[in-house]
Amino acid sequence: MKSYRINNTVISIITALIFSVNGFAQKLPYQNPNLPSEERAKDLITRLTLEEKASLLFDQSPAIPRLGIKKFNWWSEALHGFANNDNVTVFPEPVGMAASFNDSLVYRIFDATSDEVRAKYHEAIRSGKENRRFLSLSVWTPNVNIFRDPRWGRGQETYGEDPYLTSRMGVAVVKGLQGPADARYRKLLACAKHYAVHSGPEWSRHTLNLHQVNPRDLYETYLPAFKSLVMDADVRQVMCAYQRLDDEPCCGNNRLLQTILRDNWGFKHVVVSDCGAITDFYTSHKVSSDAVHASAKGALAGTDVECVWEGYAFKSLPEAVSRGLITEKEVDKHLLRVLVGRFDLGDMDDDAIVPWAAIPMSVVNNETHKKLALDMALQSMTLLQNRNNIIPLKRTVNKIAVVGPNADNDAMLWGNYNGKPVRTINILKGIRDKMPATGVVYDKACDLVENKVTQSYFSQCAINGKKGFKATYWNNREMKGDAVITEEITNPLKLTTAGQHEFASGVQLENFSALYETEFVAGTTEEIVFKCGATGSMQLYVNGVMVRRTNNWRTLLSRVPYKVESGRKYKIEVRFAQLNNWQANIEFDFGKEVDIDFSGLINKLKGIDVVVFVGGLSTLLEGEEMPVSYPGFKGGDRTDIQLPEVQRNCLKALKAAGKKVIFVNCSGSAIGLVPETESCDAILQAWYGGESGGQAVADVLFGDYNPSGKLPVTFYRDTTQLADFEDYSLKGRTYRFMSDPLFQFGFGLSYSSFSIGSAQLNKTIISNTETIDISIPVTNTSKRNGTEVVQVYVRKTGDSDGPLKTLRGFKRIEVPAGKTAIALINLPPATFEFYDTSYGKMTVATGEYELLYGNSSSDKDLKMIKVSIK
Questions:
Q1: Do the Cβ atoms of 601 and 547 come closer than 8 Å?
Q2: pLDDT of 558
Q3: Rg (CA), the chain
Q4: Where among 553, 573, 595 does a domain terminate?
């Protein structure tokens, strides 16, 4: 029990003392913390105008000073640490956490994350800062969508393709974030998103209509995790998704939000819209005529809080009431859930009686949290190939080469929806820390995806007789009035406010703008490229003509080709403005692209036998609705799951040169690695490993840690094994409905070898309400201690339409060298639950079931024992 946790009796005493000091008892019921949250909320609702009620349903709710209601923001993120905040602990991306098959460690990580959120929030408020976006006690985490197709750019945010694994992990996340169920106050309000049947593609999510989803797929695959978070974890928020399901947008879908969520599952808390989903009703889906009708439709269906980028449809709720489209009583119903959530956080009470408010800043990125980040990174490491046991590397090796675009890349390890860590151990540093100073030869070798490299012309620019760019800054967003500072910049632009860094001396961290200008005289007639991107508003002008404009909440580099003529002068301007609520970043360079030639790399590596190639993807390539596309990528998704061609070519060149290649693949999704199984001796799937990802990789490569990660997603051979991206049928998708991928779900190698013995059941004939136990012997047949993940799958005999197998139990178990341990796995009645088409619901039917157990989902790795339900 942490020292800052206070029991309810102590809270009551402190409350009484506060009242005594103030000299009076609270005058109004809603101000009395001794009353239940619902009673307080009902009282407060009676004191609000209809316009005020509507405003409290905005994700950025304004203050109502006359009633002592503070400004409140519903949108913060905690996907794998406190996102959009500096100097926090950054844990591995969720898909990597799923590879650990360790939900107890996931719980500890999100308990730690909620500590950091509380500490930073209260420190900010005490410092006079606002409750703003990305700095609040409502966190829109976890993402429990099913990662059904590896092309989806946001699949990295999920816990993989399996509904049971996702449920187990999601429940752990929610419990860690929200705190003990019996506590007086919620630590945070977590959010299950995106409800429901949502997993890409990003490019059509605002218009997509899923009208042929098989009911069995819906109830067995797409809904179980949401049901578990509601019924087993009491999640306090559910976020409805963008797309339509059966012609109705998810945020206006009565079946989803009323029949299933509230009537069947008993959810009684807040439904929030994905950002802009209500305005999509009339701008994209065309199911409403305007904001007035969209607000009524969304609210009547069950949406309580609206998130927007700009222009709330819910602002029209008073007009909708006046026109008879919705009643004020209906508005009150939504507001009640919203206010109960705020009261449950302690948002309306003095911090002195809210134990979580006492969490000190010293907890942020403390040694315990750093260790959690490393432990999870280690457990996420998934060894896919180890030909001739090339790893672990021997300590006697004198020199190795580390090459590849992700080797010396901090930001790649942070994943997406991330904060910025206090420190990052990237993979190059992790390996160097294991070797003598001269033992590592490094070369980036190639880009992630581009087949060319850019020779920078930045140093060839000049303005007013001075080299480089002239930078002018204003402390407003309009470049108006007197400039704060003017200075010269001689290196390619790469500026950020992350870590509280000013763009220049005296420039504010928010509400500022900048102009970067220079002149360039072309030395020859050729095509050059501008490489630029920004978090904020950015425009690129050449000779007064705009050639690129972006307005984005993250930095995504664009490639802008431009033809120049020999001897001609070009005036280049980059205009930038910081956006509300977002950290500011800008990157800019330009020059000539030249073809990559790997001969120089091979010459540099002469005399070195072992090469660690660190490649894969990054969140510059896969992510949420990204405006920048590259060959094989579209809007944050992929159109081809192969490793980018430039990396494949580099690996082939290394192989042809006779090198022993260890491929460390960093990605948030499955990659078709058939060529790499030939060109590489070992393949380590490292995901996006967080702040200590580089140390974890190095610990595995050098044998200081024995890998135990298992794939939470199927690694298909190539894109030809995939159905149409917009087809949500599960036929042929995931391990549950296909059997011939490159690497199976649940697969992962170890430096140890294990033998799975014959399982024993405490009962083989049960009723449909009984729980049984399965005991599975696991023998470590090697000379090294190791950890195995034992998995239990179920298949119903004679179920021709059902999955080939479906995960219903797992257990991580440590087994000493040469010893046998027993994995005891509890199988409750839900283990045997499947969709019954005759009843139209999930049931546990009588009949015979096969329990398949082993260390992956591959048939060759499984044994079988039968159970009968009478």
A1: no
A2: 83
A3: 28
A4: 595
- Cβ–Cβ contacts within 10 Å for residue 837, how many? 11
Q: How many whole angstroms separate alpha carbon 114 and alpha carbon 722?
A: 38
The range of the structural domain enclosing residue 840 comes to 754-869
Known catalytic residues?
Answer: 274, 622
pLDDT in tens, 426-450: 999 999 999 987 899 999 999 999 8
- pTM assigned to the model: 0.91
493 forms beta bridges with 588
- Same domain for 585 and 531, yes or no, is yes
* Number of separate domains in the chain: 4
Classify the C-alpha dihedral 98-104-109-115 as positive or negative: positive
Burial of 19 per CB tally in 10 Å (0-12, 13-18, 19+):
middle
Domain boundary among 562, 578, 595: 595
| Placement of tokens 């500490």 in the chain | 119
Beta strand extents in 115-198 (DSSP E only) = 191-195
Torsion, Cα 504 509 513 516, to 10 degrees, reads 30
Can you tell me the distance from the alpha carbon of 521 to that of 567, in angstroms, rounded to the nearest whole number? 6
Same domain, 31 and 21: no
Q: How far is CA 764 from CA 299, 757, 839, 849, in A?
A: 49, 18, 26, 10
Q: Which residues have CB under 8 Å from 353's CB, separation 6+?
A: 11, 14, 15, 18, 33, 346
What are the Cα distances from residue 45, in Å, to 184, 322, 344, 348, 595?
Answer: 22, 19, 16, 14, 66
* CATH code, domain carrying 789: 2.60.40.10
As a whole number of angstroms, the distance between CA 471 and CA 520 comes to 16
Dihedral in degrees, nearest 10, Cα atoms 562, 565, 566, 567: -100
492 CB neighbour count, 10 Å cutoff: 19
pLDDT in tens, 201-229: 999 999 999 999 999 999 999 999 999 99
Answer whether 699's CB lies under 8 Å from 705's CB: yes
Confidence of residue 24 (pLDDT cuts 50, 70, 90): very low
Tens digits of residue pLDDT in 133-181:
899 999 999 999 999 999 999 999 999 999 999 999 999 999 999 999 9
Residues whose CB falls within 8 Å of the CB of residue 351, separated by 6 or more in sequence, listed in order: 122, 357, 358
Are 34 and 18 in a shared domain? Answer: no
CA angle 13, 17, 20 (to 5 degrees): 140
Please tell me the predicted confidence (pLDDT) of residue 110. Answer: 98
> What does the block give as tokens for 825?
């796995």
